[in-house]
Specification:
single chain, mainly alpha, Serine Threonine Protein Phosphatase 5, Tetratricopeptide repeat, globular, ANK repeat, Ankyrin_rpt-contain_sf, repeat
Length: 130
Amino acid sequence: MTDDLDAETIEFAHRMFDLARSGAEDELAANVDAGLPVNLTNAKGDTLLILAAYHAHPETVAALLARGADHTRANDRGQTALAAAVFRQNAEAVRALLDAGADPDHGDPSAAETARFFGLPQMLTALGRD
């Protein structure tokens, strides 16, 4: 698919993924508001939401969710944004995702399985699975 995109477009997409990783929610939100697909996905299947959750940026997670980011999407390894937030033990991002309707049992591994595997009882409690 990237064969159809010019270098400038690819560089722009990389920059958007970097914004999600760094938690630059204002700039990222402005780009989504201007037409950037909120569910933009990289070559590994990571969405902007998954990257923001994995890099522990709950404000960015909330901004993306408010703009319609799909919390059910899983990357190529079956991981969801909720599982990423649990792995990073970011209670604020976990709460935002749960409030948006994320399912603790969705994904492979799911958020609940991730919390159990890594021995994260506080995350199991946050997920309502203690």
